[in-house]
Design goal:
The chain is α+β, with helices and mostly antiparallel strands and 232 residues long. The chain contains 8 helices and 8 strands, in the order E-E-H-H-H-E-E-H-H-H-E-H-E-H-E-E. The chain has one domain: 3-Layer(aba) Sandwich (Aminopeptidase). Bound molecules: coenzyme A (COA).
Length: 232
């Protein structure tokens, strides 16, 4: 694909592919050396608002959540939007296979009733119900785990640019499908605008514990976890 400096299996191989935007935003690959800066960004602009995180107790993110997302950097499919040297957006994504739902249910059982175990369980349900492998006849997909934009810079198409760029990269790497679990009203709206397919919806007020009470109670306007997919 034009524009990419290809060095297969090197996570940093798209480092030189800088997408310059008219408004001074550039998109670049996240490498291990950016880990601390990326984590600081997510602590300020993602976890404080992400509906599964703020919709369950304790309100703070589980360290296992951070550990999982940082472990995705080595896949080479994590991107950051930069304004000069400053991170203004982050997209974390990685490979998943057709047995992903089983793995998620196993991990959810392993972490039990912890915050991370509880989040994994609803993600496992979304994965099983959306069943994208049968729906699209594919064996693997690139899955977006995190999409976050600087709270001061929302509404400037940074989220959309990150998704468009991961689509190009995913296509280049041979992924047939891109998927995303939108826990937020705003990310779902963004996927609709990008004409992604809505493949599953789990309403928070219908996802209940054994006593019939909602497990996640995020503030309005967040009402459901919507899974979107698009062929690459
Ligand atoms: N709170 C309030 N308004 C928001 C918003 C938020 N979290 N996110 C977007 N908006 C508004 C924008 O200001 C814009 O308004 P406008 O049309 O009046 O200008 C509109 O929604 C469209 O914004 P858009 O460009 O689609 O969103 P974005 O790319 O700037 O940001 C997210 C989208 C999801 C990345 C961003 O909301 C975010 O980082 N949220 C926190 C982390 C999170 O929950 N991530 C999603 C988990 S799946």
């Amino acid at each position: 694909m034009a524009g990419y400096q290809i060095q297969e299996k090197t996570p940093a191989f798209i480092h030189k592919n800088i997408l310059s935007k008219g408004d001074g935003i550039q998109i670049d690959a996240i490498q291990l050396c950016h880990r601390d800066k990326v984590l600081d960004f997510l602590r300020s602009h993602y976890y404080l608002e992400e509906p599964l995180t703020i919709g369950s107790y304790p309100k703070e993110q589980d360290p296992e959540d951070e550990k999982f997302n940082m472990s995705q950097i080595t896949h080479g499919t994590c991107l950051m939007a930069l304004n000069e040297e400053r991170i203004v957006g982050v997209l974390i994504s990685g490979l998943k296979h057709s047995n992903e739902a089983d793995h998620l249910f196993e991990d959810a059982a392993r972490f039990g009733p912890t915050k991370w175990g509880t989040a994994l369980k609803i993600l496992a349900c979304a994965e099983r119900e959306s069943n994208v492998y049968v729906r699209y006849n594919v064996l693997k997909a690139l899955h977006i785990h995190i999409l976050a934009v600087d709270a001061q810079l929302r509404g400037h198409t940074i989220g959309a640019s990150l998704i468009e760029e991961i689509k190009k990269l995913g296509r280049h790497l041979g992924y047939p499908l891109l998927t995303l679990d939108c826990t937020s009203y705003y990310s779902a709206k963004l996927c609709e605008r990008l004409h992604m397919d809505l493949v599953n919806v789990i309403k928070y007020d219908e996802y209940l514990d054994k006593e019939g009470k909602p497990i996640f109670k995020p503030p309005p306007p967040h009402q459901s976890l919507k899974t979107y997919a698009t062929r690459l």
